[in-house]
Amino acid sequence: MIYDKIKENHMNKRQQLIPLNNLNLTDRFLFEEVMEDPLTHREALSIIFGREIPLLDQNEAEKELRISPEARSIRMDVFSMDVEKTVYNTEMQKQRRADLSKRSRYYQSLVDISLLEPGVPDYSALNESYIIMITPFDLFGFGKYRYTFRPVCVEEPKCVLEDGATRIFLNTRGKNEDEVPAELVQFLYYVEHTTDEAAEQTGSERIKRIHDRVRKVRNSEEVGVKYMQAWEEKYYEKEEARKEGLEQGAKKQLIELIKKKLEKGKSVEEIADALEESTDKIEELIKEMELE
Fold first, then answer.
1. Residues 6+ away with beta carbon under 8 Å from 289
2. Could you tell me which InterPro entries the record lists for this protein (predicted)?
């Protein structure tokens, strides 16, 4: 009976797992596995920038940056550097968040700090850098496939602050096809619809090569195991958080009941009996209430 219950719970969890073959590039796991390959990331960047990107000599997935043990760290999806030492941080952001603009600012600041060696007085040594966020939604609401940000002078818009930092937001659901390269439109569609059909219909050889990498990842037994492990870990983290939330909610509700009964002049023993709790438990919660 117990075994059947465990098996049932396990199967219910499995049913919630989206098969690796059904993931799109908007799913962070597949995106990171695919773009971890330098040549594939180079193909994607070449499409985004509309020119050949020099061969990447550094490419890291899930790179962690932290300026101190106390400071908040960030985990970058794909961090890379080309032969000209230009830095590219490419992020997949599937969920809409209100803080994405400021998040990109924080990413930029940590990238800059990581690039400058301690004690170097010349800030011109800072690399050219690009923070690229790909989203399946229009963060700014102007219907653009691409939003490129560089600091400009308010009093003189033609005056651009050439500090070497650029932030780009790509929207898979743009509407201005006539203003951007067709290959970029096809690529952003493919990112959200990562299928054999979408790859076959495109005229882009780059997208087809990216899809070859996608198929290789999807057919990898090693990646499949890694995907299962990552999903299980995330599942149990969510379960722990949910249980903790339920426990906190139940505790708060119990404290409220104790307060009401104390106001009515009930003794600890009477409260414990009414709430079917031990007197030790009630006394412990009353002490917590007194410390608040």
1. 255, 258, 259
2. RpnA
Same domain, 126 and 246: no
Closest CA to 59 of 40, 79, 32, 73: 79
Distance CA 42, CA 213 (A): 12
pLDDT band, residue 245 (cuts 50/70/90): low
Same domain, 149 and 283: no
pLDDT mean across residues, the chain: 83
Range of the domain at 56: 2-219
- Residue 11, pLDDT score: 46
- Nearest alpha-carbon partner for 168 in 111, 136, 130: 130
The pLDDT score that the predictor gives to residue 235 is 64
Model confidence at 5: pLDDT above 50? no
CB atoms within 10 A of CB 61: 20
- For residue 20, give every residue at least 6 positions away whose Cβ sits within 8 Å of its Cβ, in sequence order, or none: 30, 218, 223, 224, 227
228 assigned to some structural domain: no
Give the Cα separation of 161 and 276 in Å (integer). 68
Q: Give the strands of the sheet with 56-65, arranged side by side.
A: 56-65, 74-82, 87-92, 129-135, 165-171, 146-149
Select from 49, 93, 95 the least CA-distant residue to 74: 93
